[in-house]
Amino acid sequence: xxxxxxxxxxxxxxxxxxxxxxxxxxxxxxxxxxxxxxxxxxxxxxxxxxxxxxxxxxxxxxxxxxxxxxxxxxxxxxxxxxxxxxxxxxxxxxxxxxxxxxxxxxxxxxxxxxxxxxxxxxxxxxxxxxxxxxxxxxxxxxxxxxx
Length: 147
Description:
five-stranded mixed sheet, Aminopeptidase, 5 strands
């Protein structure tokens, strides 16, 4: 398995995986808009970076992250927005490999930490993070508002 940053050539597979993520969370399996993907990932000021796990030509999963500032003091943190492993690739160490790559990416970018949220009704994700030895933080409340 190889983990690398997505390129514009990966737009179609990212679109497909976004549809799989929607379906996983109970929505319609609608692929992501390729134009939005290109704009958000491969423009002059990208909103996020995507790491892809591959086995040859097959994409097994992705991790999408953005940088947050300030983290602690004037430090930067890497914020994991989405970690997803395709159904056929689950239980093969893909998520662990992506999490390891995220830590390496954060260190290479000079970040002081990696942060993320997880849905409480996603036991496989919670079990993974616990197995990685990461403790839950109870001091924050998550908010969301529509625009």
